[in-house]
Amino acid sequence: MPELRLSEIRTRYIEGDRPLPTALELALRADPRAGAHAILQAVERRRRERRAEGQRLRWMLEFERELWKRDVVVIAGVDEAGMSPLAGPVAAAAVVLKPEWRAPGVNDSKQVLPERRAELAQVIKREARAWAVAFVEPEEIDRLNIYWAGIAAMRRAVEALGLTPEHLLIDARTLRDVAVEQTRIVKGDERSLSIAAASILAKTERDARMLELDRTYPDYGFARHKGYPVREHVAALRQHGACPVHRRSFAPVREALGLPPLERLKAPAGSKEPSPKPKARGIAPK
User: Fold this and answer.
1) Which residues contact 125 (CB under 8 A, 6 or more apart)?
2) Which of 230, 234, 84, 194 has its CA nearest to residue 149?
3) CB neighbours of 12 closer than 8 A, spacing ≥ 6?
4) Is the Cβ–Cβ distance between 161 and 75 less than 8 Å?
5) Contact 60, 196 (CB under 8 A)
């Protein structure tokens, strides 16, 4: 057999992420060159990673699979993003995936690199049965408090789906005023694929909003930190004061404005938050 050009094999089958043909693999195993063995090691490492990812994705469908056994198939994962920032809206997403759908890399949005998160968001939007993202703006956050703002955003996202889910899988929350069977899952964005998909959409859509706000209010660095209370943001807040999209119920913003601290508000059991018109976007059910 003529000598194999290892650089071309690496480019095509390692960097190009294409399956290695069986005949070529056998030839590489018989090749005494160190480069051939390095390629085989890279191929085996990729196979192990893919097996591990497949197992992880199967595990993340545990809650969905239990519902499918009951013939419950219209399952919406629900999650929010942006509870901690000092500025900008809180966002929530609701996503209805098709049964057995999965995509490598879908996980809690905080564990996914921004570039990959953006790619996955497009895949989810394209392939989901239905999805919606809703926002609660800073003025309403200050009126409701951040806990109820998160609840409001999630409820609005569910209502904007264009279909009625048979079950909601929610990250650590319960939507008491939504008449749909629900499962509250602590760390749900790490344990349910539906919730993880929702977390990716909520995060990417909110980040996009913060990029827009950075162009309007360039003094605060929203494009870099998305409004989170990092040292750079707090310093800008002290230097420039608060802008219209800062949350005036948050302590660092009140301090910058010379306002007294607010008493910490707790969500009373059984209470319901007001229900204004939702600000949401999504796709019609497929």
Assistant:
1) 131, 201, 283
2) 84
3) 18
4) no
5) yes
Amino acid at 254: R
pLDDT per position as a tens digit, 37-92: 898 888 888 888 787 777 888 889 999 999 999 999 999 999 999 999 999 999 99
What's the pTM?
0.79
Burial call 79-89: b when 16+ CB within 10 Å, e when fewer: bbbbeebbbbb
The predicted-structure confidence for 256-282, as pLDDT tens digits, reads as follows 999 998 875 454 444 454 444 444 566
**From CA 120, how far away is CA 103, in angstroms rounded?**
8
Return mean pLDDT, the chain.
89
Mapping DSSP onto H, E and C, the string for the chain reads CCCCCHHHHHHHHHHCCCCCCHHHHHHHHHCCCHHHHHHHHHHHHHHHHHHHHHHHHHHCCHHHHHHHHCCCCCEEEEEEECCCCCECCEEEEEEECCCCCCCCCCCCHHHCCHHHHHHHHHHHHHHCCEEEEEEECHHHHHHHCHHHHHHHHHHHHHHCCCCCCCEEEEECCCCCCCCCEEEEECCHHHHCHHHHHHHHHHHHHHHHHHHHHHHHCHHHCHHHHCCCCCHHHHHHHHHHCCCCCECCCCHHHHHHHCCCCCCCCCCCCCCCCCCCCCEEEEECCC
pLDDT digits (tens, 9 = 90+) for 128-161: 999 999 999 999 999 999 999 999 999 999 999 9
